[in-house]
Amino acid sequence: MTTSYEISAQLNRASLSKIQILVLLLCFLVATFDGMDAQIIAFAAPWMMPDLGIATERLGIVFGAATVGMAVGAALFGYLGDIYGRKRMIVLTVVMFSLCTPLAGLAGNLNELLVIRFITGIGMGGALPNAVTLVAEYSADRQRRMMVTVMYMGFAAGGIVGSVAAKMLIENYGWQSIFYFGGILPLLLVPLLIGLMPESIQYLVKRGGGSAEVARLLGRINPAVAYSAENRFELAESVVDTRIGLLFAPDRLRNTVMLWIAFFINLLVLFFLMYWSPKLLIDYGVSAKQAFNVVLVFNIGGVGGGLLLAWMSERLDPRLTLSGYFVVATLSAMAVGLSVDQPTLLLVSAFFMGITAGGAQVGLYPLATQIYPTAIRVTGVSWAQSCGRVGSIIGPIAGGALVALGWGFTDSYLLFSSFLLIAAAAIFCMRLKT
Fold first, then answer.
1. To 5 degrees, how large is the angle CA 302–CA 304–CA 309?
2. For a Cys-Cys bond, which of 167, 226, 340, 387 suits 260, CB 3.0-4.6 Å?
C-alpha cells in the first residue's frame, strides 16, 4: 500500500530545519540586493544630473521608470514562477537586475537612463514575489508570518548597504561607481542560488514527476520520517476564486477599500522618501555624507520595525497597532522635515520614521491575508499590492513635480507625512474578526 503525505501537514509537524533557514537566508539576500539596486539611484542623482543633462523637474520620471518596471516585473515573473518554478525565476531576475544595474553608470543621456532603469525595474519587481512565495511555501503555518516578515526586512537592509557604499564610493570614485557596485554583489549571489537554493516542494508536486526530489527535500526538513519516491505526495488545495467582485461583497467592501487606501498611501510616501530624501537634503545644504546617514538610519529602523510590529500584532489588536504605527510615522516624518538644521534630532527622527513607516508596509501583508477567506485570499492580496504599486509610481513623480514648483525639503516632508494620517484612519476603520 502506497503511503500518502500532504505537504503542509508534514511542514507543520516538523521543527524548523537547516534547509528552511537556508531558503530564508538566500531569499533575504535576494531582497537585500533588490532593495539596494532600487535605492542607489537616489544617492547618485545629485552628481548624475549635471553629467547627463537631467533637469530637476525630469528627475521624478527617472525615479519612476524603475517603479513602473517593478510593477511589470511583479506581474510577469509572478505568473512565470507558477509555470516554470520559483527558483528559476529568482535566478533569472537576479541575473537580470545584476547585469542591468551597471548599465546605468554607462548611460549617456536621459533617454538611455530611462530605458535602462525600466528594464532593471522589471528584474527587481520579478524577484521579490517569487522569493516571498518560496519562503512562504517552506514555512509551517506557525512560522509563516515571521519568516515572511524577516525576508521582507531584506529590502530595508539593502538600503543600509547602499547608504554605506554611497558614502564610500561616490565622492571618491564618481557616481557611476555605485551602479557598478550594485551589479557586482548580486551577481556574486547567483552561483549560491543555483547551487544551494531548493525548488519549492509545492511546485514540484504540482508539476508532477518529481517524487524523488520531493522525498529528498522533505527528508531534510523532517529526518524522522523515511520518505521515498514510491510515496504519494499531495497538496491541500483550496478552491481559489479570482473574481474581483467578491472583494466588494457587503461584508468585505469596507475592509477592501480601506486596505487599498493604506497600501496606496504608504508606498506613495515610502518611495517619495526613498528616492527624494538625499537630493532634497543636499539641495538644502546638508553634506552628502549627512544626507546618506539619514537614509542609513531610516533603513536601520525599517529592519527592526517590521519585526517589532509582527511581535506586537500577535499580542494586541493588529488594527490598533498598525494604525498606531502610521500615526507615529506621521509625527516622525514631520519631525524630520522640521529638524533639518539639527543633525542629531534629524537622525533620531529618521530612525523612528524607518521603524514605523517602513515597518507598517511589512505589517500590511499579514493584515491583508487576515481579512479575506482562503478562496479569495490570493486575489485580495494581489489587488492590494497593485494599489500599492500605483502609489510607488506616483510618489517619486509627484515629488519631482513639487520640486519643479519650488518646494524644498521641509515643505515636501510635511505634505507627504500628512498623507500617512489617511492610512492610519483607513486601518482604524477596518473591521477584523476576532
1. 95
2. 387
Segment 156-165 shows an average pLDDT of 93
Nearest to 304 by CA among 165, 152, 124, 423: 152
Q: What pLDDT does residue 51 have? A: 93
Contact present, 392 and 268 (Cβ < 8 Å): yes
- Cα-Cα-Cα-Cα torsion 328, 329, 331, 334, nearest 10 degrees, comes to 170
- Give residue 407's region: left, alpha or beta (phi > 0; psi -120 to 50): beta
* Confidence (pLDDT) at 257: 95
Q: Set out the domains of the chain in order of their start, with CATH numbers.
A: 1-237 (1.20.1250.20), 240-434 (1.20.1250.20)
User: DSSP label at 232?
Assistant: E
Instruction: Provide the terminal-to-terminal Cα distance of the chain, rounded to the nearest Å.
Output: 43
Q: Output the pLDDT for position 432.
A: 78
Q: How far is CA 418 from the centre of its chain?
A: 23
User: 2 or 337: which carries more pLDDT confidence?
Assistant: 337
pTM higher than the cut 0.70 = yes
Q: What Å distances lie between residue 403 and 87, 114, 173, 304, 334, CA to CA?
A: 41, 19, 28, 31, 18
**Residues forming beta bridges with residue 233, ordered by sequence position:** 5
Asked whether the beta carbons of 335 and 349 are under 8 A apart, the reply is yes
Contact 207, 125 (CB under 8 A): no
| pLDDT tens readout for residues 309-332 | 878 877 888 888 999 999 999 999
Instruction: Please compute the mean of the pLDDT values over residues 76-93 and round it to a whole number.
Output: 89
Helix axes of 409-428 and 374-404: crossing angle, nearest 10 degrees: 160
